[in-house]
Amino acid sequence: MAAALTDRYIGAVTKSLPPATQDDVRAELEASIGDAVEARVEQGESREDAERAVVTGLGDPAALAAGYADRPLHLIGPTHYLTWWRLLKLLLWIVPACAMVGVAIAYGIADKPIGEIIGQVAVVGISTIVHVAFWTTLVFFILERTGADAGTTWTVDDLPEPQESGAGRGDLIASLVFLGLAAGALLWDRFVGFVLFARDGVDVGVGLGSQTSSMPILNPDLWPWWITATLALIGVEALLAIAVYARRGWSAALAVLNTVLAIVFAAGAVHLVVTGQLLNPDFLAVTLYRDDVPSDVGRILSVLLVVVIVGIGIWDVIDGWLKTRRAQRGAR
Amino acid sequence: MDETLETHLQELRRGTVVLACLQLLRTPGYGYGLLEDLERHGFATDANTLYPLLRRLEKQEYLTSEWNTDEARPRKFYRTSPAGMRLAGTLTTEWAALTGAIATLTNTDQEV
Fold it and tell me: Most buried of the four, A7, A327, A330, B37, by CB within 10 Å?
């Protein structure tokens, strides 16, 4: 029974060693353990206790075997860890988002119910994350075991650029100009009309205005309430931009406001698209609903439009929070 | 003992075991005997560190080995090879240089 302990231990150590060294290691370990047990027995310990103590002292047989075979006891060591981590972060930013948007578009075009779309996007998102993490790690695990060089050495060129705080004068001007243009475009579309169309052929030698009539792209019924509400949202966005500039950076309260604005805007826009109220029926009559346009085109464009609206909203929210976090870190 | 202190001591001692083995094995020795010799000279080492280390040094050809089957228990005897002697010489010189360098850190009348 006692001898079995040493045998079992040595068996556990040698079984994962290269066959060529197994017998040698076995014989040497037998001698070493035997010597150590002998020494303890001479001190007056019972043979069984001595054997148990010696084998315990040698520790996990797998660890000892790794020592003999010069195998690493980690999944990814310091040589590859940083490369692995950078690549994993990069892939996790890109791949799941692309997969989820792709699935959302595909299921939307296939006219699946909204619950199924959300469920499928979640499933695809989670499984992509798991796949990306697993396969990336597996590749680096193999690199680690084979001692291959990942071929990336850090240089000063890899230093990150100073990140935008989003609170500079340029950001403010850009925001206000963009918001002003958006408000102007809304009003122009309502009261003048963006789309020019000619009743007959157009003679480019003469002014266009007299030959064409114009119509709005957006549904005229959106006036006054929807348009006014949008203008109000634009006004609040402008105030937000000014507030960010005035307090030299984002704060949690501003990020919350930004989130609410983005959700309200996206929800309103998506509602109008889905209920078919967004675009001018007259405009659609001369474009999408012409007889030579396949009937699916309108639906597919709606799906893409919804994805774009939701995507912009989500990005806006994330951007606000990222800048808030940066500002808080910078303040510390 | 304090865990950080223990880590620092380990870091400092790492590598000295190799030198001690190379010096002690100028006269052939076997695993358990060497473990006891190291302990007696003040280089307390775990068996599970020493045994793989001996094989690594043998693979790097700083040690040679031979099975001695004269006694009841056959033992693998290691002996420092000529390359091992040279390595021991280099390491000893380095150790002396380090000792000198550390002395200059605490000497007030140093000339640097």
Answer: A327
Q: Are A195 and A214 spatial neighbours (Cβ–Cβ below 8 Å)?
A: yes
pLDDT digits (tens, 9 = 90+) for A131-168: 999 999 999 999 888 877 766 777 888 887 776 666 77
Rounded Cα distance between B35 and A280, Å, is 90
**Interchain CB distance below 8 Å, A64 and B56:** no
**Cα gap A17→A233, rounded to integer Å:** 70
- Structure token pair of residue A100: 């989820």
What is the distance in angstroms between the Cα of A83 and the nearest Cα belonging to chain B? Answer: 27
Residue A241 in contact with residue A172, Cβ under 8 Å?
yes
pLDDT of residue A192: 83
Q: Does residue A58 belong to the interface with chain B, where contact is any CB pair within 8 Å? A: yes
CA dihedral of residues A267, A270, A274, A277 (deg, nearest 10):
100
Model ipTM? 0.83
What's the count of helices (H) and strands (E) in chain B, helices before strands? Answer: 5, 3
Residues of chain A with pLDDT under 50: 1-2
Among the partner residues B30, B33, B48, nearest to A58 by beta-carbon distance: B48
Work out whether the CA dihedral A131, A134, A137, A142 comes out positive or negative.
Answer: negative
Which 3 state secondary structure label does DSSP give B21? helix
Helices (H), chain A: 2-14, 19-42, 47-58, 61-69, 78-109, 114-146, 169-191, 225-246, 252-274, 281-286, 296-331
Helix (H) or strand (E) holding B29: strand B29-30
Q: What is the pTM of this model?
A: 0.67
Q: Which residues, including other chains, have CB under 8 Å from residue A5's CB and lie 6 or more apart?
A: A51, A52, A55
Write the pLDDT tens digit of every residue in A273-299.
888 888 888 888 877 777 777 778 888
Sign of CA dihedral A213, A216, A221, A223: negative
Number of Cβ within a 10 Å radius of residue B55: 21
Using 50 as the pLDDT threshold, list the residues of chain B that sit under it. 112
Query: Of A16, A28, A37, A73, which to mutate for an interface test with B (greatest number of B Cβ within 10 Å)?
Result: A28
The whole-number pLDDT of residue A1 equals 44
Q: SS3 of A218, please?
A: strand
